[in-house]
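Supplementary Methods. Inverse-folding protocol.

Structures were first reduced to a discrete structure-token string of length 241. This string, shown here, constituted the complete conditioning input.
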């Protein structure tokens, strides 16, 4: 028998960049211009949130494209605390399903240094952002102990359920789970600020339900899940968020 050739996944198809009339314009502190082309109807992103987004970035001067998740055909999952100030200030308030254009002054982007060969020093930037999904965070019990930082080892009890409510993984307070930095995006993005003794619910988009293969977990990837978490102990390894 002939050996079976591995089947490579199909490359994502580029997505057209939205070009819609502006329905709402807001100018924020620092000259950040926010133009909503579509008001979303889903979950509203708060400061320090984590999102799944398509985006298209161009230089304001000349319109040269320097980065585009639309062109790559796949949304990206990331925390707002990890991006430029123009995104940190300009994305909160968006609702899932919304489309927004940000015109970001250089001081709220990459400033005098620029970024690589595509973004020169002192460049104002324009981003078109489509909010595909977001990590939903709700505290059901506010703890009184130490708060989890951006980089921490966390000891938790938790229950993870799928969209049908089936339990796919859990750990009890008597036999808790220890999360290490970088192990799981939803914990990395959704735990900061939670205090020991607290309980928090995370509604996790499928794009943030990813476990690196080296972790060796059997939890299912690429499906939306809900996590009910109790923070038992935390050891912060870096600055607190």
């Amino acid at each position: 028998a002939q050996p079976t050739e591995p089947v490579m996944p199909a490359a994502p198809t580029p997505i057209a960049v939205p070009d819609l009339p502006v329905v709402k314009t807001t100018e924020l502190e620092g000259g950040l211009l926010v133009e909503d082309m579509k008001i979303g109807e889903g979950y509203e992103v708060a400061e320090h949130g984590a999102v799944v987004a398509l985006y298209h970035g161009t230089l304001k001067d000349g319109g040269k494209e320097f980065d585009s998740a639309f062109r790559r055909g796949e949304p990206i999952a990331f925390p707002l605390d990890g991006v430029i100030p123009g995104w940190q200030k300009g994305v909160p308030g968006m609702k899932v399903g919304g489309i927004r254009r940000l015109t970001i002054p250089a001081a709220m982007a990459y400033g005098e240094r620029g970024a690589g060969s595509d973004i020169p020093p002192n460049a104002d930037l324009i981003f078109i952002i489509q909010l595909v999904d977001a990590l939903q965070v709700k505290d059901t019990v506010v703890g009184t102990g130490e708060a989890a930082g951006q980089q921490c080892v966390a000891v938790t009890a938790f229950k993870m359920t799928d969209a049908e409510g089936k339990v796919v993984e859990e750990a009890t307070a008597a036999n808790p789970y220890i999360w290490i930095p970088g192990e799981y995006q939803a914990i990395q993005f959704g735990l900061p600020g939670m205090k020991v003794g607290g309980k928090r619910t995370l509604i996790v988009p499928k794009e943030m339900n990813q476990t690196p293969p080296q972790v060796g977990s059997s939890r299912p990837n690429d499906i939306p899940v809900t996590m009910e978490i109790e923070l038992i102990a935390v050891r912060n390894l870096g600055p607190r968020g």
